[in-house]
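Teaching assistant's notes for section 4

Start the section by putting this record on the projector. Ask students to predict, before seeing the second block, whether MCE family protein will look compact or extended. Collect guesses on the board.
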Amino acid sequence: MNGESRISWSQIRVGAAVAVALGVLAVAVFFIGETGAVFGDRYNLTTFLPNANGLIEGASVRVAGQDVGKVNRIEFVPVEQRRGSDQVLELTLAIDRNVSNQIRQDSEARIRTQGLLGDKIIDITPGSPGVPMLEEGDTVPSAAAIDYEELFGSASELVDDLAATLRTLRSIADSLLAGQGTMGRLLMDTTLYVDLLTTSRSMNEFLRAVAQGEGALVQLAQDEELYADLRSVIAGVDTLTATLVTGEGTLSRLLTDDGLYRNLASTSARADSLLSALESGEGALGQMLTDQELYESLLKLLVDVQAVVTELRENPRKYVPPIRVF
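Reveal the predicted structure now:
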């Protein structure tokens, strides 16, 4: 009986040892999957983001695509302590110390998506030589992550615009095929096509005639006498222009003499005054132009005078007595 008890206790101890070993192995596997190290030395860095975009605590942290740690904590930054719109969330990153020389002050942390499931991770760019390394508690500058929702929204708007453009092009094509509008008639109207073809042929014949020196227009262009006459006319115009500029001649004095201009202005003013007086009926001439009774009397007088002159021509002896010498 005692032997059986000792064997039983031995089995229990063995089973407990196996269970502990399995537990340690499970913990090691977990840490290997999360950070790539089992009990490696780590140090903490922080970074700030305006939006987590689905990133959760425990997400992987990578440098140049290699797992080097995990996201330990994601916390909101108090509103009063924010230094900008990009400091809404504070992330604490646990990083393997053996890669500390890769993360420097010019490194940048950004959210990336991995796999088809869209898991979010933090990816840190390696630093540059000569730039100081980041120490425990330092902040890794963050870079804006690609907002796929905004990108998809923009792509959707672009697709909508493209669809609208295609609909417009289809409408234009339908109008052209239906012969609507000027372009549609140009494409579908055979009469207009024939007219354009005739015009094109006429233009070709005209250009051929010009090239061969035929026609009045070409003769005018090639006539040396006409060219000389045109040059003479142009020279005369140049001479006239020079005369006007130098103040010679009557026309030039009309253009340049201030005294003559004032005399003309005075004469024009007097003429305006005279016309105004005539229109208002002032003076004898004005009354003749505006007084209807005077006009009719003068007209009657002219008629009577004309009648007397006619009578004198027809019967001069009636009004002129005979002249006797002796």
